[in-house]
Design goal:
The protein has helices spanning about 1-15, 25-35, 40-45, 50-60, 65-75, 100-130, 135-140; strands spanning about 50, 80-85, 90-95. With about 140 residues, it is mostly helical. Strands 1-3-2 form a three-stranded antiparallel beta sheet. The longest helix has about 30 residues, at about 100-130.
Length: about 140
């Protein structure tokens, strides 16, 4: 109960500060982490540095354009680093930065929760899609 109250207090503090994307660290950072591709790319880079083509194979349904943009965004945010090697042609490798490494533990918690909750979420979606929204509406 005390942990729940502490969380509610933190949530109240965040709400009271507003959700301005530029000023709110929660919204600002979670916009990036919650991106469709960011988590997959961070997980792909967790084990070892990768070249672009390897990342593209690890996340096969991402377009090359979207992979490029996401890598740029992650580099801009300081979560990954880009290393160019003086070969002909130059080879480029992406690595997690120390900041990116620090994101892995909380990300692992979210991944664990997603894996544990996946069946329940699928069942809820199926129930909702079948038109049975009574449980969903009564919870609101």
């Amino acid at each position: 109960m005390a942990a729940s109250n502490a969380l509610n207090t933190r949530f109240d503090e965040w709400r009271d500060r507003g959700f301005d994307a530029n000023a709110c660290p929660v919204r600002n950072v979670l916009d990036r982490i919650g991106d469709k591709w960011t988590t997959l790319i961070l997980v792909a880079l967790a084990a070892k540095p990768c070249r672009f083509s390897q990342l593209h194979r690890n996340v096969p349904d991402i377009s090359k354009r979207m992979l490029t943009q996401t890598l740029r965004d992650l580099q801009r945010d300081g979560l990954i680093t880009r290393h160019v090697f003086p070969t002909k042609p130059p080879s480029v490798e992406y690595r997690l930065s120390p900041l990116g490494q620090s994101a892995l533990a909380p990300l692992a918690g979210l991944i664990d929760w997603a894996e544990q909750s996946f069946a329940a979420i699928q069942a809820s979606r199926a129930q909702f899609d079948a038109g049975d929204t009574s449980e969903h509406l009564s919870a609101a």
